[in-house]
Write a structure and sequence with these properties.
Layout (H helix, E strand, L loop, with lengths): L5 E4 L6 E6 L3 E6 L5 E5 L4 E3 L4 E3 L4 E3 H12 L12 H11 L10 H16 L4 H17 L1
Antiparallel strand pairs: 1-2, 1-5, 2-3, 3-4, 6-7
């Protein structure tokens, strides 16, 4: 499963996986409790593959940031909780992405990244990070 099928829905906790699309939106399944809900096109939905984190030089795709967290934690759940203090979260994120833009990346964003990483890890979806980057390389190789 690639990050193209994993969503964050504004106002709803956790992450969701697309089950099927409908005429007016999609049926999604929560990665937390496996409950299915219908979301309409009016819902504020973010697809994980389209999210990026600001750094001082460029925007780094969320997939790359999650890969760095995975490398740091050895594929295990994070050593910190998304409920830890602002300082703890920022210190952790600085180790993962040393040049992140502290003015534009808020503690709430770091909390989401930590929470999302742990949800993906718990649901064995971290392997999709590797698959996605291989697909990207194949696509970029074909374009050249």
């Amino acid at each position: 499963m690639s990050l193209d099928k994993i969503l964050s829905i504004s106002g709803k906790p956790g992450l969701y996986q697309i089950v099927t699309q409908t005429r007016t939106g999609a049926v999604v399944e929560s990665l937390i409790d496996k409950k299915r809900i219908t979301v309409g096109a009016h819902s504020n939905i973010s697809i994980l593959s389209e999210i990026a984190i600001y750094t001082l030089a460029e925007e780094v795709p969320l997939r790359e940031v999650l890969k760095k967290v995975k490398e740091k934690e050895g594929g295990q759940p994070t050593s910190i909780s998304h409920k830890d203090s602002k300082d703890t979260l920022e210190e952790f994120f600085f180790e993962v992405l040393p040049d992140y833009d502290e003015d534009r990346v808020y503690p709430s964003d770091i909390k989401k990244v930590v929470q999302w990483y742990n949800l993906l890890q718990k649901n064995d979806l971290l392997d999709s990070l590797e698959e996605s980057s291989k697909e990207d390389k194949t696509t970029s190789d074909e374009e050249e």
